[in-house]
Amino acid sequence: MKKGIGLPVFPGVAIGPAVVYRKAQRTLPIPSGDPAVEKAKFSAALETARAQLTALFEKAKVEIGEEQAAIVEVQLLMLDDLDYLDGVNLAIEGGAAAAIAALDTGEEFAQVFAAMDDEYMNARSADIRDMSHRLYDILCGNTGFQLPEGSFLLVAEDLAPSETIQLPRERIMAFVTRQGSSSSHTAILARTLNIPSLVQSDITFDAAEGCQILAVDGFTGTWYADPDEETLAMLRAKQAEAAAARDALEAYRGKESITKSGKKVLLVANIGCPEDAVDAIKADAEGVGLMRSEFLYLGRDSLPTEDELYEAYKQVAETMGEKPVVIRTLDIGADKQVDYLGLEAEENPALGLRGLRICLTNEEIFRPQLRAIYRASAYGNLHMMFPMVASVWELKAAKALCARVRKELEDEGYPTKDVPIGVMVETPAAAVLANELAKEAAFFSVGTNDLTQYTLAVDRQNAKLGEFYDPYHPALMALLAHIAKAANDNGIWAGICGELGADPRMQEKFIEMGYTELSMAAGRILESRKLVCESDV
Ligand code: PEP
Ligand code: MG
Predict the structure, then answer these.
(1) Which three-class secondary structure state does DSSP give residue 327?
(2) How many domains, the chain?
(3) 185 assigned to active site
(4) Considering 250, 267, 300, which residue would you say is the last residue of a domain?
């Protein structure tokens, strides 16, 4: 048995096989310098890609549905596209290695498709890119990430949101990462999925790959590779205890979240995708306090269309019914990067073009999202809020665009409802300006993860700064009290949607400060309701 430690980000015990996630490492094969050899390599890669895509097509038809299967089918057809094949051969004859010829020709074609004045052809640009990347990977000998059948514990150096989005969530029993922090998105996903997880762990890939069974104790922050009988028995007992505690919380299902002195709080869920809304209902959430809508933009090769966004928001609105749903508009940037936007690399991305800044400077990105939200508003109780606001003018500019979009939709005959517009308070500037912003906003929702990062000037992603990332810092507490007071003085409601919203050390304090909504991973709702109902504040 080997064991080690990590920083626990969600309690519980998981026991099962380990899978190591390694980032794709592409090593370019040395070019032979002989076009005939490169052409032969390319032909062989075409055959491999054909076999892979055919298998994927059959799987997609059964497991994911016709629509996804059709995407795979398009790529299969593209493998036979004579223009593409000629382009690759020409590049090879010009001296390029097969891998580069496949990739560059694919990119050229993708750009041509993207520039066409036709939505269908534009969407094909992502397909051709995907297909040429597949050929490139095959030619570089990169076999990709192989997942076993069944459930497993995932071990990784770190996971970017664009990587976690592609994982089969229902099969992951735990995350164990060597990097990451308690407010990183892997940690947030672990809480959303209700799975015990460790970040900043000392696990080695050798230990994980060399063991039959990996166990994670999310209560103590310990991992065990091939635990001995005694340890296994101890872990199983803990698992049973945790299950019994979960059962006991069922007594709070369906109850009102109200303190003994009569203070009513809305306990709502943080979600990333429409399927999470189903889990929020199962967990007895009283609404959605934060839909991280950027997850609809991650893990793909092109912007989602207005219709795709609309379908996703409509699904959430319908799932939640009359319960309020707060959609946070696109919060791309910093740790959540998408290649297809073609944004330049930044020296300091956390302080760069992110959140509302991207939306205000790229209306062609923002407008479809706003249109989708207003179109979906007819189906439920939607609210929206903007991330990374630092100035009143930003809120005013975004609101003005919302008004134009709504008018435009009504002129086009779409039914829309009023969508209350709030501010995510997550920059110190927004916190200090809370009184001014409250005059323009319908509500506040405090993003304590970023507010901590920006107030203390501590990178939330940097594992080395753990002890300096202190969400209980008196400076934070002063800002949080000020925000709640400003909201109450101006007659609007305020909630907390950062990780602190689920923190049992803080929840009573937040209620005392005047917050009336706490948004958290769905799995934390019932225990939070217990705390609220037993509280005297
Ligand atoms: C926050 O910053 O607290 C927040 C909720 O947003 P995110 O974690 O997605 O940045
Ligand atoms: Mg944030």
Answers:
(1) strand
(2) 3
(3) yes
(4) 250
d(CA 21, CA 19): 6
Residues near ion ligand 2 (CB < 5 Å) are: 426, 447, 450
The reply to whether 477 and 368 lie within a common domain is yes
Domain for residue 456, yes or no?
A: yes
Q: State the Cα–Cα distance between residues 328 and 352, nearest whole angstrom.
A: 19
CB atoms within 10 A of CB 517: 25
Those residues with Cβ within 8 angstroms of residue 388's Cβ, 6 or more apart along the chain or in another chain = 331, 333, 354, 355, 356, 357, 424, 426, 427, 450
CATH code for the domain in which residue 83 is found: 1.10.274.10
> Do residues 412 and 362 share a domain?
yes
Reported as a single tens digit per residue, the pLDDT across 333-373 is 887 888 888 888 899 999 999 999 999 999 999 999 999 99
User: Are residues 344 and 489 located together in one domain of the fold?
Assistant: yes
The burial class, CB within 10 Å (0-12 / 13-18 / 19+), for 10 is buried
Residue minimizing CA distance to atom 8 of ligand 1: 449
Contact 354, 369 (CB under 8 A): no
Q: What is the pLDDT of residues 218-249, one digit of tens each?
A: 999 999 999 999 999 999 999 999 999 999 99
Q: Residue 50: which domain range?
A: 35-140
Q: Is 127 in the pocket of ligand 1 (CB under 6 A)?
A: no
Q: What is the CATH number of the domain that holds 344?
A: 3.20.20.60
- The answer to whether the CB of 497 is under 6 A from ligand 1 is yes
Q: Closest ligand 1 atom, CA of 185?
A: 8
